[in-house]
Amino acid sequence: MRNKLACALALTGALSPLLAQAGPQQMLLLIDMLKENGTLTEIQHQQLKAAMMTEDPAPSSKQPPAQQTPPLSPSEPVDVMVSTQGGSVKAESYDGRSSFQFTAQIAADAAWYDSDITDMGNAAEIRYARIGAEGTLFGPWEYELEIDFAGEDVDLKDAWLGYRTLGDSRFKVGLFKTPFSLEEMTSSAHQTFMERSLINAMTPGRNVGVGFETYGGQWSLSGSIFGEGADDGDDRLDDEGWGGSLRGTWAPVATDTRVLHLGLSSTARTYGGDSDGEAVFRIRTDPESHLVDSKNYLLDTNQYETKKSKYKIQHMEHTTSIGVEAAMVHGPVSLQGEFVRTYVNSEDYMESLDFHGFYVAGSWFLTGESRNYDHTRGRFSRLTPYSNFGWGEGTGAWEMALRYSHLDLDDQDIEGGREWNATVGINWYVNPNIRFMANYIVVNSEPDAAGEEDDPRIIQVRGQYNFGSSLLQVGSSKSSFAPIR
């Protein structure tokens, strides 16, 4: 019996740091357990209970009470929940009101050019090296920041603060994409082809301004009022003008494997002037291959600067662009197309200049997947293969794609060129985060901005890795968060 009591006292001494944090109820339970297993006699049990009941609970007046930290129970709330789902590190407060997520997109390209009158030059580059963060603050507040380190200069892509209200609407201020075009609003990380089509040259891109987004069961609506982009010169010297944009989409069919999408966009802006009081307008684009140097673009309305034409568009008043879009998904097959027309008004022309273009594209998943459609924003999003690639496991997702695009930048005495492109693409989705792409482009320009009929052939490939961009998607799942203890 003495040995049992000695063992009990030794165990009690070893556990004293924990027992010191235990209350009277826990101590009584321990005494009862020692009595039940025979460690304590009935007399010892009664004596210890009596001592517990008569002990003065008040702390000594000379010594402050010890700071007690209650032990953490799995059922108790924790401050932060963490997840690594999707390859990104995400953190969220236990009440779900604040969150943080890293985002990244890295892509390496290589391209080869053949039969080109304009020497485009074979080359390789880091196309994207984007790092960012996004999340929520105190419930309704949201934020996003993304920086691209590819190329010679650091490029700020997104930097905005938003406020979500009524559950389905968001107001935001800062630098973000102006709502226009299905192709433009779909992230470059989730495009079917390596580069967007020729008509993307007529989209407003990212600008600084204020905007709103809202949606219903089958529709979405977004708009913005904006100035210039983050790197469009010294605003202290230039009067940049202002613009507005509105985009609406309707998806009468939007399931996991079937989609019918229709959309309409419109944007307009006025122009101020530079330090000389002169407002200049320009549309130019590469032949759907980013590695082509800008001085060798086949389409350019302002070839005056490269001495290929004596005309340039200046003394600007305003521009208006209208875009019509449609898309369909039926199982592994998808079709998509857009038409955009831009009217340019200048003091130098009695009538508006008219530039326009279109594209049609289709894709087929050989492995059976369907493109992932986000009806809340009227765009396509990340694809998840049925099986990730792994030796002896899965094949990933394989996609074949075709696209035909056209852009006409000739009107009145502006000879920006006309171009038709046909592209064949193949994509291998190793998993939701890694993708390899290959495009073959047949270019036909009649004539190009230099007056030549330049018809190059282009082969280009890409390796891409990206993660993140899920916390701010409406209806995104956060069930994978685990507590930090």
The radius of gyration over CA amounts to: 32 Å
Estimate what percentage of residues fall within beta strands: over 45%
Biggest sheet character: 16 strands, antiparallel, barrel
Which whole number gives the mean pLDDT? Answer: 83
Could you name the ranges where pLDDT drops below 50 across 5 or more consecutive residues? 2-22, 56-63, 474-485
Name the shape in a single word. elongated
Indicate how many domains the architecture comprises. 2
Question: Spatial order of the strands in the main sheet?
Answer: 3-4-5-6-7-8-9-10-11-16-17-18-21-22-23-24
Number of strands: 25
Oligomer: single chain
Tell me the span between the first and last alpha carbons: 41 Å
What name does the CATH topology of the largest domain carry? Answer: Porin
Supply the CATH class of the largest domain: Mainly Beta
Short key terms for the protein model shown above:
single chain, mainly beta, Porin, 2 domains, two-stranded antiparallel ribbon, 5 helices, 46% strand, elongated, disordered N terminus
